[in-house]
Write a structure and sequence with these properties.
TolA/TonB C-terminal domain, two-stranded antiparallel sheet, rod-shaped, 4 helices, alpha+beta
Length: 210
């Protein structure tokens, strides 16, 4: 059996009753108000609370302290340049072979009585220079040797003594040996007879004459 139409209309009218319309409007207002309040509150929060700025800093790694550098070496002033004094050469006369041999003093042994003895005379051809020792040459040794020689009645040298050294034992020995072996004198005489004598002689060793 079909339901009567007036019953359906009655049910539709009861669903749209004034009470329901009021409740629906109230709930709609509440929802709208809540939404508005929520949106306003969030906007206010966003406005009042500024955005936090993120800062990024680069932190350099702290290196260990290095030891201080050593002090610079002490600079000393260089010594002033050495300028050698000029070599001054004094020109002297070259000593010849004849002047390299000199008789300084002679002493004649005389008798206690009678006339004085004659003078001692050198035999010049025998008074030659002694050979220069090779070692003395290489070492640059030179100088004058003064010797006392004793001359017998034959005019030969019987002894030789160095009175003043040349500073080189080699030169002293060479001079004495040569004089004793080669030099001759004419002995002095007294009462017609030759007598013994002694004299000082000097030999000069000079590399200029070599």
């Amino acid at each position: 059996m079909e339901q009567p139409l007036h019953t359906i209309r009655a049910q539709q009218a009861s669903w749209l009753s004034p009470n329901r319309l009021i409740a629906l409007a109230a709930s709609t207002c509440i929802v709208i108000g809540f939404s508005w309040a929520l949106s306003v509150g969030l906007a206010q929060t966003l406005v009042e609370k500024p955005l936090e700025l993120l800062k990024a800093e680069v932190v350099q790694e702290k290196l260990p302290d290095k030891p201080p550098p050593p002090p610079p070496p002490e600079m000393k002033e260089p010594p002033p340049p050495f300028v050698p004094p000029p070599e001054i050469t004094i020109q002297t006369e070259a000593v010849s072979n004849t002047t390299a041999i000199t008789t300084v003093q002679s002493k004649v042994a005389s008798a206690a009585s009678g006339p004085p003895p004659t003078e001692l005379h050198a035999i010049a051809r025998t008074h030659t220079l002694p050979p220069y020792p090779d070692v003395a040459k290489r070492l640059g040794e030179q100088g004058a040797v003064q010797m006392r020689v004793v001359i017998n009645t034959d005019g030969d040298v019987t002894s030789c003594t160095v009175e003043r050294s040349s500073g080189s034992p080699r030169l002293d020995q060479a001079a004495c040996e040569h004089v004793q072996a080669h030099w001759r004198w004419q002995p002095p005489t007294q009462n017609g007879h030759p007598v013994q004598a002694s004299t000082l002689v000097q030999v000069i060793f000079d590399l200029k004459n070599e």
